[in-house]
Each structure stands twice: as structure tokens, then as C-alpha cells.
TrEMBL record:
Family that this chain belongs to: Belongs to the class-I pyridine nucleotide-disulfide oxidoreductase family.
GO molecular function, a single term: flavin adenine dinucleotide binding
Enzyme Commission (EC) number: 1.6.5.2
Official protein name in the record: NAD(P)H dehydrogenase (quinone)
Chain sites annotated for binding FAD: K59, G128, D322
Source organism (scientific name): Rothia koreensis
Record-linked Pfam families: Pyr_redox_2, Pyr_redox_dim
Cofactor list: FAD
Domain of life where this protein originates: Bacteria
Amino acid sequence: MRTVSEAIAFTPQRIIIIGGGPGGYEAALVAANLGADVTIIEEQGLGGSAVITDVVPSKTLIASADTMNRFSEAPALGIRTRAGDELVELEVHIDKVNRRLLNLAQQQSKDIRRSLEKAGVKVIDGTGRMLDDHTVEVRDKQGLTYELDTHAVLLSVGAHPRELDTAKPDGERIFNWKQLYQLKEVPEHLIVVGSGVTGAEFASAYRGLGAEVTLISSRDRVLPSEDEDAAKVLEDVFDRRGLNVMPRSRAASVEREGDGVIVTLSDGRKVSGSHCLLAVGSIPNTKDLGLENAGVTTNDSGHIVVDGVSRTTAPNVYAAGDCTGVMPLASVAAMQGRIAIAHLLGDSVSPLKKHRVASNVFTSPEIATVGVSQADIESGKYQADTVMLSLSTNARAKMMAVEDGFVKVFARKGSGTVIGGVVVGPRASELIFSISLAVNTKMSADDFADTFSVYPSLTGSISEAARRLHKMPV
């Protein structure tokens, strides 16, 4: 294994990164730190879709909705909003919410640009296309077209919302998830087509902001790829908050009708609303990249084929992020990019291990998972003991008036090693880190249980679950 100084000695003169999302800009920072001559090409702004139109704005919107949810449930804590002698309700100014989230996204993009330029990375505002495995054609925003030679290329071009031929977004009444931030008022009745992560998050958020929401799911439950117990909790919360879920219902078409929309289902039923959000998946941005010129292979869905260290089928071309179809998470894209550069420059590197990836669904309550799933255990793929504790028994949760959620921890039979877990509740995205650390370090449930947690705290339920996984020595 080469040292960092040895890796720098072997550094190619130039690395070109096409796409400035998490996979691209994280890779650029690592490469510049190791002494490479790095150029990054990005069209819409540094941070890519994750920062400009997806993760940052959507989670900022969700933060506003979360505040509304907390206030709506504040009476349980003995708190009410009063103006004089009159009780008043909170009001959402969605145009202000949207202006804030878009400004925040632009600020984050500018911060990333400054970090890259400070590290010595050259930034080109434009697009890149591969002419061969060592040449990239650039078209910049000034209208100039020119070629750049390189020793290696990293592709991090992301993906865009999938559309239906019978349901075309117009940015006024029918939206994809990039267009929702144009709204000037909270929809009277938002119909969300698609019950995966994106659909569930926006449905949860807009219900929190006061919209009537109907969620159309082609499957028998929301979040079909997530933990079944977690999905059940979320469905119960949706029901209690008045969010209508239509399971086993597939949208055939969406049409404008006056000041509203009509969604026609495949069985002929119709649903009317004021607006519709299409959350039916994404398509990789791999068209017209010149991949065939460089010998880069894609699969049937158009995703770039990569191995565990982000190599494509061309020896000096790597890829990271949603364009690879590995896992549609900004954290995974960033890790793929870092791994790609480490492998390319001869630094120490470990292949991406998908079973160690922590992920979160930013609904209310949040759903966080890491490692082996309940489905993996039930299928017999893994042999594990499971402990699941409801947050309703947790002292801190009671103080916070939290009634929904649980902690679930999986430990391998025999060794007792922690191999996975699920957290459902407020800030599950933060709480999952301790379980993720246990999974990644192959910690035993006993060692996990012996790690102090604060009392009272939500993490106390994680410690309790670990204690209940203890087995007496035979």
C-alpha cells in the first residue's frame, strides 16, 4: 500500500470531473489534497441537483413542515398560541418558505465553489462530453467549445425526474420534485403519485404545511423498500393526521382541468385535486455523454456500470452517484467519489460496502436504517436476534410527548455482533449514527450496551435494546 507522499508522486497530471454534485465535488477536494491537477465541469451550479433542486431544498421545506407539526401537537405539552384572549392558528407563507430554501441552496452552492477554488480546483461552468477515454469536449456558458486532455475522468452527472407519457409536468398544476418550489400558496389538495421515499417525504411535508394530501401507491403500503414495521408506524401517523393513502392504485394519466387536476387510475377510478406531484423515479443523465466513445458500458436502465471502487469498463474512467444506480443517496455518491480518487491515485481504499450504508427517510416521524434489514433476516439470508422497543416507553420521549416510533437492533446469532438497526422517531437521522458506528466497527451487542448513554435520552432505548440482546455464556 502506498503512503500519501508516494501516492502524490504517482498522481496523474490531470483529472477531469464531469458533474459537480456530491460525488464530483467531494472527489475533487480529495484529489486536490493529494496533489492532482483537477478540473470540474458543472452546468447548473456546484452541488448539482442534490444542493440546487433536491436534497437541500426538500429537507429545508421539511424543516418548516416539522415546525408546524410540533406546534400542532404542542397542546399536549400545555402550550397554545394566543393573541390576547383569542387562540390563533399558525399560518404558512409558502412563497417565503420557498424563497428561503432556494436562497439557502444557492448559498450552499457558493460555499462549495469557494471551497473548491481555495483547494486549487479549476471550475468550468458548462457541460462535458467524452470524445475518447483521454479527451473531454467542453461547452461552457460563454458559448465556447474546446477540448481538454486528461489522464483520468470521473463521471458524476446525477439523474433527473422520470416522467410519464400520459402525465407531463407543466410547473403550474402538475409538478416533478424540482418544480414544487415555484408554488406561491399551499395547495388546497395535493395528489402525490408514488409512495417511495420522495413521494412519502413530500406527502408528509405538505400535510404538515396544511394541505389536504392524497398519496397514490401502486404497492400495498407506503415505502415498500423500507422496514415494514417502520412503514406501518408512518401509515398510522398519516391516518391520524388526515393524509389519505390509496394503496394498490396505479396512476394511468394526469390531466389539467380548470384550476385543478384529474388523476385517472389504471382501473378507471378518478381522483381530483388542485395540484399533482409526480414522484415516479428518476433517469440517469448519461445520454449524450459520449460514453460509447470512451468504452464505458451502461446497463438497460442507462446507469453506468461500476465496481466496488467506482471503476467503469474503461480503465481510466470512474463514475459516482445517481448515474451509477448503486444507491440514490448523496452520502453514497460522496463516498463513491472519494473511493474513486483514492483508488485512482493509489491511496489506501476499501470498496463500498452497501450493507453498511446508513439512510434516512425525512418524513414525520423520520425513518433511519443501517445494515442488515428485517427482510434479510426473515428470508434466511442472515441469522440474527432482534430486539424492538417502542419509544412510548422511553422517558425522554414521554417528556417530549412523542408517541410514535421505535428502536430495533439486530445482532448476529452466535457472535452477538451488531449487524443492523432501525430507528423511527424525531431526529432518527441523528440517532442512527450510533448503530451505524457499531455496524461498521463490528461491535458486539455487549460492548454496545456497555457504552454509556445519557439519561433521559432517546438513545437510552438503543442502549436498552443492546442490553436485551445479551446472551449468557454457555
